[in-house]
Write a structure and sequence with these properties.
The protein is an all-alpha fold and about 110 residues long. About 80% of the residues lie in helices and about 0% in strands. The protein is built from five helices and no strands. The longest helix is centred in the middle third of the chain and has 25 residues, at about 30-55. The chain is flat.
């Protein structure tokens, strides 16, 4: 079975997200590194969600709306991070949830 270009792209993005998530939780002395990996994880989550939502046929409006709602955890994570001044564990888990929802949506629909 031949893999489509979009599927290969999705797999590469999810793999990149796994690596980013690992570095996001590894303790480091430098807070800037945590913020960089947090921002990178948000961007990968948004990219996965965009691919998930735009890969669906236009007649599946409900599925498209659900796919776009996958960005809500990342939005909450950004709000929490802005309020606290730095990303905490809960915000990082919310960012991870966005990518997981996007990947599940892409692979199952």
């Amino acid at each position: 079975m031949a893999l489509s270009v979009m599927l290969i792209l999705e797999i590469v993005i999810v793999f990149s997200f796994v690596i980013t998530s690992l570095f996001m939780f590894i303790p480091k002395k430098n807070e800037t590194v945590h913020k960089i990996f947090f921002a990178l994880a948000i961007m990968l989550g948004v990219l996965v969600t965009v691919i998930d939502a735009t890969a669906l046929p236009s007649n599946l409006v409900n599925h498209i709306i659900i796919a776009w709602l996958g960005l809500v955890p990342s939005a909450l994570a950004v709000i929490i991070t802005m309020a606290k001044g730095k990303p905490n564990v809960f915000a990082k888990l919310l960012v991870m949830l966005t990518t997981i929802l996007g990947a599940i949506g892409y692979f199952l629909l």
